[in-house]
Automatic annotation (TrEMBL):
InterPro entries: FAD-dep_OxRdtase_2_FAD-bd, FAD-oxidoreductase_2, FAD/NAD-bd_sf, Flavocytochrome_c, Succ_DH/fumarate_Rdtase_cat_sf. Keywords: FAD, Flavoprotein, Oxidoreductase. Belongs to the FAD-dependent oxidoreductase 2 family. FRD/SDH subfamily. It comes from Parasutterella muris. This is Flavocytochrome c.
Amino acid sequence: MLRRNILGSLAALPSMAYAFDLKKILDAGRSSYDVIVVGAGAAGLSAAVEAANTGASVLVLEKAPDIGGNTLISGGFYSSVDRKLQEPLGINDSEELFFEQTYEYGGSIADKKLVEHLVKNAENSLQWLESLGMHFQPRVFELYGAHWPRSHIPVLPLGQGYIRTLSSAALDRGVEIKTRCSVDELIVESGRIKGVAAATDNGRKFYFCRKGVVLASGSFAANSQLVERFAPKLAKLTTNNTPYSTGEAMMAANKIGADLVDMEFIQCLPGCPPGKKHRVRFHNDVSNFVLVNHEGKRFINEDASRDDLRDAVLSLPERYAFSIIDGQGFRKSGILVQKEAVIAREAGEAWNASSIEELAVKIGVPPSNLVSTIQSYNDGVLKKQDSLGKKITPLTLCLKEPPFWACFASMTIHYTEGGLRIDEKARCLDKAGKPIIGLYAAGAVTGGVHGRNRLGGNGLAEAIVFGRTAGKSAVERI
């Protein structure tokens, strides 16, 4: 059966046939690995580490020339209940509140069992990362779209800490990692997943496994055809994903019967408008910034859901707004955001000024309106009652310290909530809800965890939690 499936796959290839010895592939490759992981971001590497912890032989296949995926260029924030950090700041939190916010802000359509699995395992997965050598700053904050101050900040910038920590742990455990391997086909034998086929620099390769395949290949945000197919209104937007986020492995699983869920739900974040090059993340910390339109007025509370913010910005005639912070917020934003801002300013895509009036002139909004907007906002912060309903906390800043900064706040595609349907054991399910034997998935390639709107910081938490689960399940052949 396996030989017939491979021959059938070859028949579908372009006429310029690949030269190889089929018998040699079958004999040499069939028992080479216990587990194959597709994708070397946080989810894939977490799966590889957990699988290798049992003594299993593990192969990781990564499409890009380098490991890291979207994790490496992400903000790096990880959301979890963590009372040891939260309680000294006067922050009350619980798994129950975390579940409620994740589920309700997601439109109350996510799979409750998946949400529960995420919430119940986020903290122990945070501790697991730390046990492997990952370091976080000793504080939490409310990330844009997180709706509660539970976002942890890695010491190393962006996602570097996760990839360094997890890849080192994987290599220490004997995991083999191959880059430039684009998996676009799954090999099935007697109703069970037995391996994958991948395009490589040296032609088409086949990799076989004894126990299971874990798909952790990320989103399809950089595939304009899939975006247009599932969310046509967003098809013309830019994306902040890597160019390798194109969904081939996800669609290969769908081709052999894996179900897709929530594909129409795609999340956007503030970024540069089409035609511009420099994204500045003044929006990261919701306590630091305000959004204003081209009249210099606020038009939505900045802690609204990410989907509401997306729709509000895209409904503006210009389809972009401006993010504004002050000097204190700029210092809090971190060295990488500061670097982004300076580079963008040199390119004419961010601005700073010694006064709100001067900033208004630079970004082309009425100075009197912007001055009034900032004064009203600051009054609301002091009174702890914002006119647009933004939650005011002890961390919320007045915007009063020069220099004042502004950047573009268009919408860029950030995250695809939809993907492969899984259960709480990270098993891929078919359209009847039954597990596909030997196929597991974790991270942004999956759907059903977040519903229509993912909370800020939940993406990395999901990747680690479900990546670990998928690695364990694959080894145990659940």
